[in-house]
Amino acid sequence: xxxxxxxxxxxxxxxxxxxxxxxxxxxxxxxxxxxxxxxxxxxxxxxxxxxxxxxxxxxxxxxxxxxxxxxxxxxxxxxxxxxxxxxxxxxxxxxxxxxxxxxxxxxxxxxxxxxxxxxxxxxxxxxxxxxxxxxxxxxxxxxxxxxxxxxxxxxxxxxxxxxxxxxxxxxxxxxxxxxxxxxxxxxxxxxxxxxxxxxxxxxxxxxxxxxxxxxxxxxxxxxxxxxxxxxxxxxxxxxxxxxxxxxxxxxxxxxxxxxxxxxxxxxxxxxxxxxxxxxxxxxxxxxxxxxxxxxxxxxxxxxxxxxxxxxxxxxxxxxxxxxxxxxxxxxxxxxx
Length: 336
Ligand SMILES: Nc1ncnc2c1ncn2[C@@H]1O[C@H](COP(=O)(O)OP(=O)(O)OP(=O)(O)O)[C@@H](O)[C@H]1O
Ligand SMILES: [Mg+2]
Hints:
The protein is of the alpha/beta class. It has a single domain (1-93, 175-188, 206-336), classed as Rossmann fold, CATH 3.40.50. Helix content is 28%, strand content 24%. The protein contains 10 helices and 13 strands. The chain has helices at 52-59, 101-104, 111-121, 128-141, 158-170, 188-205, 216-222, 240-245, 250-257, 285-290, and strands at 6-19, 22-36, 41-45, 67-72, 75-76, 94-97, 176-180, 208-212, 225-230, 233-239, 279-281, 317-320, 323-325. The protein has an 8-stranded mixed beta sheet, with helices on both faces. A 5-stranded antiparallel beta sheet has the order 5-4-1-2-11. Helix 3 (111-121) packs across helix 4 (128-141) and helix 5 (158-170) packs parallel to helix 6. The mean pLDDT is 88. Bound molecules: adenosine-5'-triphosphate and magnesium ion (MG). Magnesium ion (MG) binds at residues 52-53, 99, 180. Magnesium ion binds next to helix 1.
């Protein structure tokens, strides 16, 4: 098998937290594995707080991992000194568009300065004329009018800031572009333009995308493959067309049934209750077991849950070469 562009193995991120009961660990990313091949667009979906942003920030090393491995074209990113990471040559190849375009832009940098920074810092280009030409080229490609380049973030609209964020990430023509909800804060008409831009960039530059979104319709349109995350773990993955047509995991079934255009009865109470807390108290394994912590994260909300779901975490298993699911009852769950 050829080396994948990105290979993530058993990735873990725990945040130490204080609760009224004492010290605990918040399991934001709890043993995640997946691959992305060159040229693939992969969608990452799941409800708010399930760990999507934490996962993608680990991939770009803007957050230190607690455990696991991230291999990019075979190189273990975890072995690179975090202090060297911002200027490491691999950073050119993995770029990120952050969830909030406004917060991610330096208020003291004009749009031109923002786009010029990676060219100077990561590509080592110092010639001002060359920088200007590359900045103008990416601005044109991302539909950012050149007269906006001298402006600062507070002088730009939300859609224009989103374009600056995407242009900054694309200016070095990375092999992998990680986009964390790039359209969430925008109104629908601007969202459509940004999504068209992403489709154009994919076609023109041939890069791979990891696309985080709440919007399943967008993921269905834009992505080749989908990863479904629930409470820090991947619970299902597969080719987008297949996964949307026949979701297998009860959580994916509920997510897809909730799309208004799915033709399903969205009033059906498919997801009763709240997600479990991602916080686990610092406790021995025995205590963890008696506290019911070794269980499927979806157990309290799942219509098919059994005793087994309350005593063991289901591992992700292959249904076919491209299809995976983590559910104890995969063979008996009714078809969607
Ligand atoms: N620095 C931190 N310290 C403690 N907990 C954190 C930290 N960052 C994130 N978390 C927690 O980790 C969990 C996952 O958060 P994350 O931002 O990854 O979710 P998300 O899936 O991106 O949500 P959304 O869809 O709302 O953006 C949440 O419970 C969040 O409160
Ligand atoms: Mg997020």
